[in-house]
Model the fold of this input.
Amino acid sequence: MIVQLLSAEGPSRFSELERQVEGASQKMLIHQLKKFKKDGIVTTTLYPQVSHG
Done:
């Protein structure tokens, strides 16, 4: 299910994936995404935080 969400939606924030994957714990989602990253299925892009102050 997670792979389907990743391929259908394009780039997603972690919090967006968390909302879309019902019944999955945060720990399980993190573990699965790390495995996908290691296997070359997904990539991670870090963006600078923008302060709202």
Summary: The chain has a mean pLDDT of 81. The first helix runs from residue 2 to 9. The CA atoms of residues 2 and 32 lie 9 Å apart. The helical segments are 2-9, 14-20, 26-38.
